[in-house]
């Protein structure tokens, strides 16, 4: 029965955040935050009052000096409260992250759940658990703590400042700030466009599609280039880029009103804000007591006014911070939901299995038999039925008994259920019925996985790098605390030909053959009852494979070998053969057991000394017999002198600004884009000038209204405020149009740069050559967007700040003289205080990612507990670092707060500058005029300070881009180097009788293993050839066959001659179904009228029937023609009819679903009428031929199940099964109908009986197959066989058998 989850709903966020102990809940820190905000608010009140005293007592030297000396003390207290609050918030976020991660880890590592998450059915599988634990949990905890702290701040500041105003019996001032802010928020939210969510979702969809395309190009670059799909991929990339740019522009247009309203109502005092105007007017409304004509009385009024405006904005800024944090929380909702989904899934995996109830009360309750039993040195399956996690039955009633002296060979097609035996044997997959016997039974295990001394699993690529020393690698997965003695370690390695590793201080990168040899060294060391060898000899030749298996038999180690095909060399080393057909088997069981010849197996070895004696004796016998064994190490490695792209970039662009400018120039390579960017730049400069002028006019209106108030001219006050509102509207509009144009310019630059690099990379073989120069070229291409987005936003802010400084610079020099250089010093100090932030959790994320990538092998090797300990140690160290309040870091944060927050040190310095400014005019100007000029001066100085701070921040952010610019320019340099290499030669055409001869002096595998010397063979039409070799032989051989050598000029065969089908066919996502079938050709469809469809109909169907049938689809008229679209004569008994349509949509609707075009139970043959093009790589779709190919390979259902038929766009890699993808690859061959096709294990997922039929089908379509496989198969069809990687002679042998 199904496991029953203990939870029927998702846990709340609070349930996940809180820990088991009260000290872990973060409540203490939040109480501390509340107390600090309370103290900080009181300090702010005192600071604003002291600020008013500083303004009022400008002519009273002693009083001003006393206030000026007390002000820094309040600044220090306020900065301390802010810094300590930041530290407490970080502690809260760290504790909450710690609580969530511990809860997830507790379930994640129990019973190998890190593997079970990935083995679920496609609808319920979670493949990104590492990202959810490392990234989403961090984002969730940070956003929630930000909301909690900002809410506390908003509530306390509202209470303190409003209460202070109410205590002064100014009731309006007490409730007006939060009311005005909430009204402003309501106005802003009212301008939110209704379609914004849909457009945003579309933008995210296309962004994800582009990233997915980049990722697939990165991982499948070799396949794409060998299939000559560069032009197809470039076309798909360019279309996605255009769609993405169009939707981004649409989103910019939709969000313009919202952003403009938000800027005018909610932005800081750096803009002409209506909220500031309302605050100014509100304070004036309740600050109108009678005052005298003296300077001191008027100064007191102005000081009180400025104090109340500051208090007003303190409340509004607190609520604005809460609104911003709430927006952050909303953006992290997706991450929170993913974390909750993972938690529920993990908790469900731990739920107990519901046991069936007895049907009658009087029946005794029977305990179910144990699934795993121990019958000694035996492995047996008794009537076992194996189901996949999606509940599909693979094997039924599987029964066999295996002793250690009778090795078992398990063979079958891919996905048939071979590895499912190991999963059930190790308890990873539940067994619905039946019983399994294994050494140790259900008693000796770790989290359900047997001890390595009982059963040891060795995958095709053994796990390496999990241990710290070479000794730990050999003793993996149960390393010894003290490690192996050097002599013993050397012996175990020498038995498998890896003695050279014992001389190295560090474990170097190994070839696949060396990794597999190290896997056998682990088996020899542990000497288990049984070893499960899951294709772990695929990179070895027959002689080395036979040698290693005999080493196991010398020590009495039983083994079960899993392979794809039963070669004769493997049969000779096993006593039984278990053929697996899985759910596609001919019978209902899906398996067949047969006996092979007996093999000699010695008794099981009990100690290391006995093992050494047996192995030494065995090796001496082999040497005395002069039996040749191929080495396990790589006999030849490829050494290439590659230029270092980083050094080239640093020599060519020596400074960060030069690299930044070079990156920008990538978007300006075409004259059209240069002209567009120049136009936008000119418009931005005009708007910048207008925005700056309007802003200062707004400031003059504020000071003018204050002067009118002091002059008791209420009409002038109203006039100034009304005019200020109009100026604020104009300034806001200019500001937002400027930012809108900056976004469009950034988008234009990004699309230009990416489009240029895409065209360069998608040239013939360029991408492969670029990968030899730099790593992750497509990832670097995806990073360009973040570079341009950051440059656009920071450049816009830097322009605005520079405009402010340029505007006030003459006034500063005239008013302050040499004191104006204070702003330059302020900028330099801020730059000195800035430093880069280090990511301390990269190692934790990398370890999680590695575990996820090797989940199955880790689970089968019993690495769950060890990995949990390692990850827990890393995580706890990371959390302790996050909760520490280090002295230097705290002082640095304190200094940053004091200098970057205008309310701190800058406001204190401003009072000195203001005093210096007003002193020369104190005797010549009237009180009202002097005070208004002083207020305007304060505003100008405030703008200058804030602009300086913004420039420093922008410089820091742009400086952080240097590393990304370096990566981008490395890609540019690599593309240039790759473009200078010779392109492959193209063969124009071949006749059907051509015989192709291939020669290679030395064929070397990817791992540097010599496969063949002086290789010579030929391909002939209608003479199928099978090429066999060890793992890794296919890539160099395909480079030879297809002419895609990246180092030298070669001959690249056209599609008419050679087509490649790989084991994992490349299936582009989100392209039309007909494009999938024609890949890699680009299909030409009509882009403008006339729109026509050619229909082939029998003579018995009248024209009126045709007219009625197609009239429902929008056909204009029908016309009988003499010949078809291709100019050929019409078959006797049929005629060609040309159907005219008005639009392209009507045309594709007429041909999309051929099963719907039926008249009198006869399916019409419809083809799109398109003028033929001479463009290379393009073709006109032949729908009839496509339908024939799908039917031939058994894929008709893909077409008929789609509502859009041939024109359906889907995420095909996720929609199609592996078997359907391989059939699609064969359908492509039938559609192109080349002379030859290369099948690189291209039918390994198909049932064995159908596999032979499909290979013969190719010959019936006049396509000669060339199959690449690790073991021989279909020997009646492939009578010519070429074997590579042999130990004798030149390493290759061509075998031809007569029919």
Automatic annotation (TrEMBL):
Name the PROSITE patterns on file.
ABC_TRANSPORTER_2 (PS50893)
Q: Which residues cross the membrane?
A: none
Q: Where is the ABC transporter domain?
A: 379-606
User: Sorted alphabetically, which keywords does the UniProt record give?
Assistant: Membrane, Transmembrane, Transmembrane helix, Transport
Indicate yes or no for the key word Membrane.
yes
- Specify whether Transmembrane is a keyword of the entry: yes
What family, per the record?
Answer: Belongs to the ABC transporter superfamily. ABCD family. Peroxisomal fatty acyl CoA transporter (TC 3.A.1.203) subfamily.
Q: Which PANTHER family match?
A: ATP-BINDING CASSETTE, SUB-FAMILY D MEMBER (PTHR11384), LYSOSOMAL COBALAMIN TRANSPORTER ABCD4 (PTHR11384:SF59)
Quote the protein name from its UniProt record: ABC transporter domain-containing protein
Question: Which source organism does the UniProt entry give?
Answer: Durusdinium trenchii
Question: What lineage does the source organism belong to?
Answer: Eukaryota, Sar, Alveolata, Dinophyceae, Suessiales
